[in-house]
Amino acid sequence: MAKVELKGISKIYEGGVKAVDNANIVVEDKEFVVFVGPSGCGKSTTLRMVAGLEDISEGELYIDGELMNDVPPKDRNIAMVFQNYALYPHMTVYDNMAFGLRIKKVPKDEIDKRVHEAAVKLDIEKFLDRKPKALSGGQRQRVAVGRAIVRKPKVFLFDEPLSNLDAKLRVQMRAELSKLHHDLDATMIYVTHDQVEAMTMASKIVVIKDGKVQQIGAPLFLYNHPVNKFVAGFIGSPPMNFLTVKVEKDGNGIALSEGTFKIKPDAAHEPYLKAYEGKEIYFGIRPEDLRYAEKAEKGTMPVQITVVEPLGADIHLWLTAGNQPLVARMESHYDFKVGGTVNLSPEMAKARYFDKDTELSILAELDRKAE
Ligand code: ADP
Fold first, then answer.
1. Per-residue pLDDT tens over the stretch 206-258
2. Which domain holds residue 166?
3. What whole-number distance in Å separates Cα of residue 30 and Cα of residue 161?
4. What is the CATH classification number for the domain harbouring 337?
5. Contact status, residue 264 vs residue 224, Cβ threshold 8 Å
6. Residues 6+ away with beta carbon under 8 Å from 1
7. Residue nearest to atom 15 of ligand 1 (CA)
8. Does any ligand 1 atom lie closer than 6 A to the CB of residue 325?
């Protein structure tokens, strides 16, 4: 069992920088939780407080119900994997992996068994006699992961472990870490600025901005029900489009007007939008929810094509509606020309709406019911 609980945790650095502001996060046993957010948002600081590498300024940290605030890192039963691998250059791979166990006076046979088991799991058996400098970046990262595994910790902490690898290796390691999590059945906390890593690996994502937790939830829940414009724009690539539209009275109901188009919201969303009649809001729509329409008709949006990006399986179209930019993802069989006009039919049931001042989701109440 390894449950990690952050209760009202803050970090105030010398000079008054509040790097983490009142974080409340529960990491359940065997969960793979990813902290994600832009550079400088406080992800690493939060992780380092869990590891015991930074003092906690305010709040309480529990591992399996035990208060950890004043427990030294070595007694927290956690293992951390860093971006720069942090291997000892003068030791062999074997010794790098065995070092922590020798210090803990684990019997030699047991050390040997654990190192070999981990080496097999990570496919680094043939490198055990090598020094780190004779390994590629990807192999070094495996050794760093191996060193964590042999300790059989309660919790694994990863701080941007794939950032130094090239794109192809990152994709491969992503899958391997997911498999490792599955095989080890361990609790893992993983920090990254890369929302793709978060989406693909996490059982639960914690989105952080400016030291504050924005939203916590399963990847697809966050994707479909973001609480604010920041989360909506951060999760997903290309990002969600945000068009400023005016909520207008339309017959008995309402419509969303941009000047170049007027569309009806989904019936389920209409009651929440009614309060905004006469006001401007953000209409959020994901690139894959903008469909190609054969001709202009009620409910379609005429847009101008500025860039066509064929990606093989699909096409990204960079567009403007009026003077507002947006991007659409289409199937590859269409033939689009830069400078041309195309009509889009937005999947209104998938649309999101955000208050222009607070940037909070206007559909929050509806989302709570979906949770
Ligand atoms: P992230 O991991 O999300 O990139 P960090 O947790 O490293 O962000 O940093 C969060 C904020 O705290 C940043 O504004 C950073 O400049 C600041 N910070 C980090 N370490 C220190 C430190 N030792 N002293 C003062 N400020 C720091």
1. 999 999 999 999 999 999 999 999 999 999 999 999 999 999 999 889 999 99
2. 4-233
3. 19
4. 2.40.50.100
5. no
6. 29, 64, 154
7. 40
8. no
